[in-house]
Amino acid sequence: MKRFLLLSLPLLALSLQAAECNMAFGHGILIAPDHIRILQNNRTHVQINADKQLFIRGEWATLTEEDTALLHQYSQGLRKFVPEIVSIAVDGVELGLSSIEAMFTGIGSKAQQAEWRELVRETTFQWMSRFVRTNEHFYLAPQSLNELDYFLHGELKPQLDNLARHTVGAVWGALRDALRHSDSNFERSDNQEWQSVGQLVDRINLGLDAKAVELEEKSALFCQRMQELDKIELQLQQRLPALVAYDVVAEKN
Question: Distances from the Cα of 243 to the Cαs of 50, 114, 115, in angstroms?
């Protein structure tokens, strides 16, 4: 029992640190290889080109050497941090979807498969509008670290559970109909893994739990990075007052 308590203490400390962190992103952030864009209501208000040129509301800002050094430090901080956060969330979504889609590969008619895939797309559209990863482009919508934690624990898991139960039930219905009437409207892959709904849900939850643990283990580090970025941002705002209106990294009350 004593050994169990000792092993539990590090996880408890991580949970407490995550709960105490109230840092948040107040604007959407798009990271691309040659620029960074700060967005509000899907419009670019601030853009950093090549980590050294700054545009505020479309106007080029004249920078001193000290300003440029601070901007480069700020830009590099966002580049190292934002893609890591986005990837944790996107990996969780893709893990669940790939498991679900694998179930109806080769089953049912083309129309049925199109219907199931459309259901998956509709269900995930809202998630993926908050976290986007396309090649070397990463987008993070305004949110706090606590909201990201809730996304993995409170939103993604139950919705993927419902989606899995709905689509797998439909898949098995199509399979039963096909076997009852004919096998002309579906093909079974030799490598097809037939799973029960419970098995599929357990598999998805296991992967999501791993992502949640990964986020929890990094939460203290993430919070520290955001606090450091906030300090750099404050220095930039003091030197360039036009940036005060675009507080990207902030402490959330």
Answer: 18, 47, 47
